[in-house]
Amino acid sequence: MSTALKIATWNLQRPRAGSWKNIPKILEKIREINADVWVLTETNAAINPGDDYTSISSKFIPDYHTQGETCSTIWSRYPVKPLNFPTFDATVAVCAEITSPVGSFIVYGTIITWRDDGVQEGKAKAWERHYRAIEHQSADWLKLQTKGLPLCVAGDFNETLNEPFTYGSQQGRALLQAAFQANELVCVTAKESLGYNIDHICLQTDWAQKMLCVDTWDQHKCLNDDGKPVSDHNGVYVELSFA
Description:
The protein has one domain: Endonuclease/exonuclease/phosphatase (Deoxyribonuclease I, Chain A, 4-Layer Sandwich). Strand 7, helix 2 and strand 8 form a beta-alpha-beta unit. The protein is α+β, with helices and mostly antiparallel strands. Helices cover 19% and strands 31% of the residues. The chain has a six-stranded mixed beta sheet, with no helix packed on it. It has a six-stranded mixed beta sheet with strand order 5-6-7-8-10-9.
């Protein structure tokens, strides 16, 4: 029985289903990382880690997405059980129970919206919807605690959480830290050694103590044949040992 678990997340910058330049390179990197559980954001159904994985996705947005696109998809090489739990916004966040050799746990995959969501349309001020999303998602995490299973939250948080801060806001970071504390979560990717990173993985405190390593891969080193990055985000993963 395996006593190790590898979880990864990556924002793929909305690849199109027929993107022959980017998709092969994305899949190559995904297979190289070889995570047991993936949270892919701004992704597409064309991005499939392999036949031994199953998935669950956030809902399609008709006026925004092209064919196959979703905001968040959870892929797992272990059985995925949908939860009877409506996330605050089913087009953005998705959650599922994973039954793994180290035990069952819940994964919540998400995008916490960016600074200017709704600004151009005059419907919100800068960061307003970001702050609101943190509060709503934190409420989701708290409700999921009642399931009695360890919780992993992963995805695009649109905040750097390590110094020196280069993207985000002081209020946003404070709200996230309060959310982590309220839900007994540790953001294991908030490390200065990882450099610039707005994609994160959060684990329950006892799971965070089982961490073997955490690392990232640089978007500027994951290039298509034209020499351009396949995504504008770095990816990140964590390895855990339950031995």
